[in-house]
Amino acid sequence: MRQGWRWFGPEAPVTLDDVRQTGATNIVSSLHQIPIGRAWTKSEVGERKSMIENTPPGRSSLTWSVVESIPIPDAVKRKGGQAKAEIEAWIASLEAVAACGIPIICYNFMPVVDWTRTELDYEISTGATAMRFDHERFAAFDLFVLQRQGAEKEYSAEDRQRARDVYEAMPEAEIAEITRIITSALPGSTTEPLTIPGFREKLAAYAGIDAAKLRQHLIEFLQAVTPAAEARGVKLTLHPDDPPRSLFGLPRIASTADDYAALFEAVPSQANGMCYCTGSLGVRADNDMPAIARRFASRIYFAHLRATKREGDGRSFHESAHLEGDVDMVAVLKELVAEDRKRSPEGEIVFRSDHGHRMLDDLNKTVTPGYPAIGRMRGLAELRGILHALGAKPS
């Protein structure tokens, strides 16, 4: 298995030399500066690849192995195969990536909002901070800040009262902060930042689109792009919904094993793969993470390894340390190692320690939310230790 690291580019607080010092060898990156929907060019991809792989004298080499992500425009999620221009632009970006020899592309199909949290610096018992999704705070935003039409029907009377109590106790600065976190698009997001009026307009555009319709749109997208990926030796990996359940009344269709099985049955090409994210899928108690890894082993080309801890209400959670929380990481890695041993070196699974606590000196620095250096390095070291114990020396 190959040790990956998400790098947000030359303006990111974490440098390529920082990455080298963590022991990671494979870079996961994207061209975040390019507007969603505009086709990437080979020269733009090549420039980033050169930045990563042209190793200075005396430095260990890095390889750009995964593009995370080429964003899928909103029109594709709403219209499926009818969004021909947007799909053609996405294929052009895929072709540029393939021409530069990058073999894996990660993407997601979450409508309107991408990965969602209510707090970015929730203090845990060690004094470090973690990202958190608090159901009551989320409901307070949905019901009383966004004031989403029909939202009250999706919450029990008890939930509505608790949300009101939370909202009324929030100072204006706290309301502004949760609004910023939810609407402004978190790092690596593949959706556009929104204002509250813009948010409502986006939600209205999805009226009449249920899970079946959204799944059909994803299938139509995959039917259009998978032949191009297959012809160029590129593996497409769908990232799970985060959190893996409906938000804001919107359907989500990559939350369970059955969701993935439906997509693989509809588009059976081996180019149609999975980004196996233990943190996202692990939020659901009914997702058996080792069983999912075993079931879809041949489709897993890229893995996000992190753990989350479900809280008392069963709907709130926070990012835990990588070997804590609700994910049995040893059991998960046993399944991934068993699959990886069947593969040629060029087909090895790329994994990265995903997210991480803000800790030690990173508490005094500007960091990318969810992606501090030290917390992720701790996670990578712990994962590397498991791999060594399993007799699978990571590359």
TrEMBL record:
Pathway where it operates: Carbohydrate metabolism; pentose and glucuronate interconversion
Name of the gene: uxuA
SUPFAM superfamilies linked to this entry: Xylose isomerase-like
Organism whose genome encodes this protein: Rhizobium gallicum bv. gallicum R602sp
GO MF annotation list: ferrous iron binding; manganese ion binding; mannonate dehydratase activity
Catalytic activity line of the entry: D-mannonate = 2-dehydro-3-deoxy-D-gluconate + H2O
Xref: Pfam families: UxuA
Family listed: Belongs to the mannonate dehydratase family.
The protein, known as: Mannonate dehydratase
Keyword Transmembrane helix (UniProt): no
Entry EC number(s): 4.2.1.8
Cofactor(s) it depends on: Fe(2+); Mn(2+)
UniProtKB keywords: Iron, Lyase, Manganese, Plasmid
A Gene Ontology BP annotation from the UniProt entry: D-glucuronate catabolic process
Function: Catalyzes the dehydration of D-mannonate.
UniProt xrefs under InterPro entries: Man_deHydtase (IPR004628), Xyl_isomerase-like_sf (IPR036237)
